[in-house]
Design a protein that fits this description.
single chain, 129 residues, mainly alpha, 0% strand
Length: 129
């Protein structure tokens, strides 16, 4: 039986508690930032974007790399699910470029999530922030 292949990541992402991950998915968007978004803040966003950029810059991406990219996209989506997070995303010039670079028609679920995020940003726009 073949052994499961593990990929080591040269950076460490902060881990959220299961209850926080659940609340990030299920709580409605509001103008008030959730505590975890404030705590995560600018430094955490920078780490997410840095990790996504490293994965996108790899020449040969395996299945695990694509899976990690998708998880990072989901984290960014949860982060920007309120006004504070959205302002942080729009305030970092790399964020939208990296999201656009991550669109891959071969990864339909990830591509759909990215297009939803980018379309929401277009609809809301910086003027309405």
């Amino acid at each position: 039986m073949p052994s499961a292949r593990r990929t080591t990541v040269p950076y460490e992402l902060p881990r959220a508690e299961p209850s926080r991950r659940r609340s990030a998915r299920t709580e409605p968007a509001s103008g008030t930032p959730r505590r975890w978004v404030n705590n995560f803040g600018h430094e955490g966003l920078g780490l997410l974007l840095e990790a996504l950029e490293k994965l996108l810059d790899k020449r040969q991406q395996d299945h695990m790399d694509k899976r990690n990219q998708h998880k990072l996209i989901q984290c960014l989506k949860a982060f920007m699910n309120n006004k504070y997070g959205l302002q942080r995303i729009l305030g970092d010039e790399r964020s939208l470029l990296l999201l656009a670079r991550a669109i891959d028609p071969k990864q339909t679920n990830m591509m759909t999530e990215i297009v939803k995020i980018l379309s929401a940003v277009c609809i809301i726009g910086e003027e309405n922030m």
